[in-house]
Design a protein that fits this description.
With about 280 residues, this protein is α/β, with parallel strands linked by helices. The protein has a single domain (about 5-279), classed as Metallo-dependent phosphatases (Purple Acid Phosphatase, chain A, domain 2, 4-Layer Sandwich). Helices cover about 35% and strands about 20% of the residues. The protein contains 10 helices and 14 strands. The protein has helices at about 5-10, 15-30, 55-65, 85-100, 115-120, 120-130, 130-145, 170, 185-190, 215-225; strands spanning about 35-40, 45, 70-75, 105, 145-150, 155, 195, 200-205, 210-215, 230, 240-245, 250, 265-270, 275-279. The strands form 3 sheets. The protein has a 6-stranded mixed sheet. A hairpin with a 3-residue loop joins strand 5 and strand 6 (about 155). Helix 6 (about 120-130) packs across helix 7 (about 130-145). The protein starts with a helix and ends with a strand. The model has no long low-confidence stretch (mean pLDDT about 100). Bound molecules: manganese (II) ion (MN). Manganese (II) ion binds near residues 108, 109, 110 and 158. Manganese (II) ion (MN) binds next to loops.
Amino acid sequence: MSIVQTILKGNHDITPEDIEQITGMVTDLYRNQPNVVDLPNRNVIFVGDLHGELDSILSVQNLYLKYQNHYFVFLGDYVDRGPAQTRTFNLAMALALSDPRRVHLLRGNHESDEVARRYGFYNEVTRKFSIEVYNNYLKVFQVLPMAAISPNTLFACHGGVPEGVESIDDLQKCNRFYPDYEDDVLLQLAWNDPKDADFRFAANSRGARVKAFGRIAFNEFVKNLDIQIMFRAHEVFPEGFKRFFDERLFSVFSASYHGAAMPKVLRLGGDLNVEPIGL
Ligand SMILES: [Mn+2]
């Protein structure tokens, strides 16, 4: 049985050689893809932060089997914090490899060497395996696309609207192939947070290079990119999701965070209808 099928069948305790193989396959899958990948305009399920919670991604796997005509977009933050980080990320990779047309993995702010060394992933991987295995995962982090777009309809990324972006080309021309976020635009795509108030950009306590984006910046972004709604993750809300900007921006969180959130995914149906689904 292939390593992808082994993981999909529920064997999550794989060897370093298996990890080398699956990370190599995912690196090959994504290294030639653009920063912003294409999506259809309906029947898409958006998955928020997983942070090493295997139960959450097993529920997503059930949805993947149930909604056979739906696309799945993982908005990043597979690793750090939770109890099963390698198993969670391995299953996400297996799902992507099982049907690359239907499943897209995007990069979160935790898919970075600097962050993963501080918040748990480096420790889990080097405790269970080795620095070589950690370096295999780092290669995947660097190639994961940053965002997804359906022309005239939707945009999705982990964090939010970056300052100084007026077109998709402004995003496509950035270089994401670093272990950390060297590029300010890509860093903000993965790190920024929305704030429902009438301003453009403001400081963000998450870091000196990170911004909060307000209604004015959001309105300019959707106009410039010619989209109608946006999906993002990155922040925990008790209900597992939150609407911003008159229901044009949806934030989703798919981990429980020790009971702090009811984990959700968001399903985009027809006519821009958005349905929260509990995991
Ligand atoms: Mn995040």
